[in-house]
């Protein structure tokens, strides 16, 4: 597959019509159609469902669209790494991260780094740990900020001098809002809104499983989430109580929500992780050095 053909295919998927995509790419519509048809012949399947005035990806076309985004993104990133002289520090640093108040430390280091190297651009991608590790594997991110991630021989890591505390977000009219801290027994009876990485579909996982202990065998999980904003809406509507990290969800006067820490305390350590076999750019190496200084 040629990169040009993949770029053309992505443009068609984004624009929704061959004519509009051809205009965006500054090519003729027949030339664009030939490129897409060539991809379909090469892969042996239809990639687009053609309608009278529009096109949309088939199921296999959606798969190719995701893969093409990864391939084109990696090619562009690689080209950018070679586009600068050796005597300057410039380029792009791609960081994947889960939601964490500890990202403020990363943000502070980014600010200080750009003050010294203004030609370096940072790109943040927020996702859950499984997605972040997959992006590292495919070379889409240089670094990942992971919470309580078990050591893996495929990756090197730098442990940050921070940790995130777990707690629960409840409605202000919830009886648990009157408690100073929350125990496993307090949560055993009510429906919960859980981070998806902490719920396998049948049982609890990760640090929350250890915190609940035997009380976790019969917990009722009403919903799972990967980003906390929408999950907070579920709490406001009375769907359940949300387990989350401190500092991610606005709570307190005027919000209708209260946050209470778990007791015994449950914390997640923070690691910056990168692929051991990858060759980082000069900008990435220098940024890691700046993180080590913390």
UniProtKB/TrEMBL annotation:
Alphabetical list of InterPro entries matching this protein: LysR_HTH_N, LysR_subst-bd, WH-like_DNA-bd_sf, WH_DNA-bd_sf
Family per record: Belongs to the LysR transcriptional regulatory family.
Gene Ontology terms, MF aspect: DNA binding; DNA-binding transcription factor activity
Top-level taxonomic group: Bacteria
GO cellular component, one term: protein-DNA complex
Record SUPFAM superfamilies: Periplasmic binding protein-like II (SSF53850), Winged helix' DNA-binding domain (SSF46785)
Keywords from the named record: DNA-binding, Transcription, Transcription regulation
Protein name as annotated: LysR family transcriptional regulator
One Pfam family matching this protein: HTH_1
UniProt key word DNA-binding: yes
Domain (HTH lysR-type): residue spans on this chain: 1-58
Gene3D superfamilies, per the entry: 3.40.190.290, Winged helix-like DNA-binding domain superfamily/Winged helix DNA-binding domain (1.10.10.10)
């Amino acid at each position: 597959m040629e990169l040009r053909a993949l770029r053309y295919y992505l443009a068609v998927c984004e624009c929704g019509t061959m004519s509009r995509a051809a205009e965006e790419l500054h090519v003729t519509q027949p030339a664009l159609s030939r490129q897409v048809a060539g991809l379909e012949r090469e892969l042996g399947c239809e990639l687009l469902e053609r309608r009278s005035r529009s096109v949309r990806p088939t199921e296999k076309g959606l798969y190719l669209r995701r893969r093409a985004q990864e391939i084109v993104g990696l090619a562009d990133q690689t080209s950018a790494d070679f586009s600068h002289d050796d005597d300057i520090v410039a380029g792009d640093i791609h960081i994947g991260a889960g939601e964490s108040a500890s990202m403020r430390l990363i943000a502070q280091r980014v600010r200080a780094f750009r003050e010294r190297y203004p030609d370096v651009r940072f790109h943040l991608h927020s996702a859950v740990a499984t997605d972040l590790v997959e992006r590292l594997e495919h070379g889409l991110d240089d670094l990942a900020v992971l919470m309580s991630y078990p050591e893996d021989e495929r990756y090197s890591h730098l442990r940050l001098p921070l940790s995130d505390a777990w707690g629960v977000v409840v409605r202000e009219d919830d009886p648990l809002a009157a408690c100073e801290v929350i125990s496993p027994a307090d949560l055993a009876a009510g429906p919960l809104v859980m981070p998806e990485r902490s719920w396998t579909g049948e049982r609890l996982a990760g640090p929350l499983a250890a915190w609940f202990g035997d009380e976790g065998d019969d917990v009722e999980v009403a919903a799972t989430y990967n980003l906390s904003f929408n999950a907070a809406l579920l709490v406001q509507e009375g769907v359940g109580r949300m387990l989350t990290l401190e500092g991610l969800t606005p709570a307190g006067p005027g919000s209708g929500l209260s946050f209470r820490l778990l007791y015994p305390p449950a914390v997640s350590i923070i690691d910056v992780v990168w692929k051991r076999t990858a060759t980082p750019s000069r900008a990435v190496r220098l940024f890691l050095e700046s993180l080590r200084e913390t």
